[in-house]
Amino acid sequence: MAAVGVISPGPRIHHCTWLLRAAIQNGSCRNLHVTPGSAAKEYYDVVVLGGGAGGIAMSARMKRKVGSGNVAVIEPSETHYYQPMWTLVGGGAKKLASSARSTASIIPSGVKWIKSEVKGFDPDKNCIRIDDDKEISYKYLIVALGLKLQFEKVKGLPEGFNYPKIGSNYSVKTVEKTWKALHDFKKGNAIFTFPNTPVKCAGAPQKIMYLSEEYLRKTGKRSDANIIFNTSLGVIFGVKKYADALLEIIKQRNIQVNYRHSLIEVRPDRQEAVFENLDKPGETKVFQYEMLHVTPPMGPPDVLVNSPVADAAGWLDVSKDTLQHTKYPNIFGIGDCTNLPTSKTAAAIAAQSAVLDRTITNVMKNKSPTGKYDGYTSCPLVTGYRKVILAEFDYNQQPLETFPIDQGKERRTMYHMKADMMPYLYWYLLLKGYWGGPAPYRKLMHLGLK
User: Fold this and answer.
1) Which positions ≥6 away from 241 have C-beta within 8 Å?
2) Beta partners for residue 74, in sequence order
3) Structure confidence at residue 250 (pLDDT)
4) Is the dihedral of CA 403, 408, 413, 415 positive or negative?
5) Sheet with 188-194, edge to edge strand ranges
6) Alpha-carbon gap, residue 427 to 434, rounded angstroms
7) 3-state secondary structure labels for all residues of 221-260
């Protein structure tokens, strides 16, 4: 699978090592292509940082462009998860194991897997640094590093997860704790939080709330439960059409919503959660809980923060239209690590992968990128064990719906699409570089009018 040439032992090694050292010093390392055994550097036509949805999808697409052996993926984890399934895992409808595959099994054939963390960027020399101060050089770089969960920004976490009654669908370590807290619920407050930071899948903090409410109804515990959604936002959802539908559901199910409330501390020994009123900084309120679902603060990966490829906030700085870096034309970004002004979802990654494919194709041909990403993203809002509102929208927070029906209504068909069809699309089409979102089907279903 390796793309690197082999140098035979003997005096030639010393000569090549001297040439490599000179190349590093003058910044021309980008054109050398040697094995780890012969020197400290490897070269690939395309290097992909991150083995999540965006990284694997783009590595498959790039391998078809530049050939087997010329693409490398840098990813430290041995297991890859289909994270959209974790809503159903936390709600007891799916098993965690069904969301997992080995990283080795999803790396495209002919793509080199470098099992390491990214430690630093040197874009002026077309190099990145990984573990053991090893350097990898590239002609084109795709950054797909995802984002970082920051439980530690809430006082009392993550150690608080060692106590019962608290979970989070956002981490493989805590998603099953959500289901245990729900299953063991007796009576009291069931609290669901939304942090004062960007998050991936902004609908997920509500999805588990609706599943929990239905579960408590079905098990006869609803009359003894207060369902509370404490959100740092000032609205229930950013797109008015879907917000109106959700507010009606919230009213029907007698759910309490407290806007502009941000979780700042958990006291698990006392089953207390402390929230700050963002409209009155410094003012706090303590809530007792019988169940607490935490959506953690999130931010860019540490390696991006203060790097030469990041914006002031630490996110990868790319064009919102082409996904090409704003300063380095041979660097591109996809997914949660970017500063694209849209929701961070797997559906967004699918649409971005198609645009980025066209962008890189043009750049490789020394042409200006012509593709334009419209900000498409999707959030299947699970409102029950057999109901989903399929929210689809663009950069302008306007609905961009695929089906010629009102997607602002709860539908069982959309639940089955979420639970059964989307995992198949993910594993067998998106990760293999064949799914670029529903845009072509949208045009077909709307007779080319939308």
Assistant:
1) 399, 408
2) 49, 114
3) 98
4) positive
5) 166-167, 291-293, 188-194, 225-231, 256-259
6) 11
7) CHHHEEEEEEECCCCCCCCHHHHHHHHHHHHHCCCEEEEC
Q: Tens of pLDDT along 49-69?
A: 999 999 999 999 999 999 999
Please name which of 412, 359, 405 lies closest in space to residue 388, comparing C-alpha atoms: 412
Cβ(372)–Cβ(340) under 8 Å? Answer: no
User: Among candidates 447, 443, 433, which has minimal Cα distance to 142?
Assistant: 433
Q: Encode burial over 266-304: b for 16+ CB neighbours within 10 A, e otherwise.
A: bbbeebebbbbebeeeeeeeebebbbbbbbbbbbbbebb
Place of tokens 């917000």: 243
Which positions ≥6 away from 196 have C-beta within 8 Å?
232, 262, 278, 297
Q: Which two tokens stand for residue 15?
A: 């000569």
The secondary structure element, H or E, covering residue 293 is strand 291-293
DSSP character at residue 3 = -
- Tell me the domains of the chain and their CATH numbers: 11-147+300-364 (3.50.50.60), 150-297 (3.50.50.60), 377-445 (no CATH)
Q: How confident is the model at residue 38 (pLDDT cuts 50, 70, 90)?
A: very low
CA dist., res. 40 & res. 38, Å (int): 7
CA atoms within 13 A on the CB side of 156: 18
Q: Answer yes or no: are the C-beta atoms of 202 and 238 closer than 8 Å.
A: yes
Global confidence as pTM: 0.90
H or E element at residue 157? none
Radius of gyration of the chain from Cα atoms? 23
d(CA 297, CA 157): 11
Strands of 75-217, DSSP E: 79-81, 100-102, 111-114, 118-122, 127-130, 135-143, 148-149, 166-167, 188-194
291, two tokens: 């169940």
Question: In the chain, what is the straight-line distance between the N-terminal and C-terminal CA atoms, in Å?
Answer: 43
Give, for 267, the enclosing helix (H) or strand (E).
strand 261-267
Is residue 85 within 8 Å of 423, Cβ to Cβ? Answer: yes
Q: Tell me what pLDDT residue 446 has.
A: 76
- The catalytic residue positions are 201, 379
How far apart CA 391 and CA 236 sit, in angstroms, is 13
pLDDT mean over 26-46: 53
Element (H, E) at 433: none
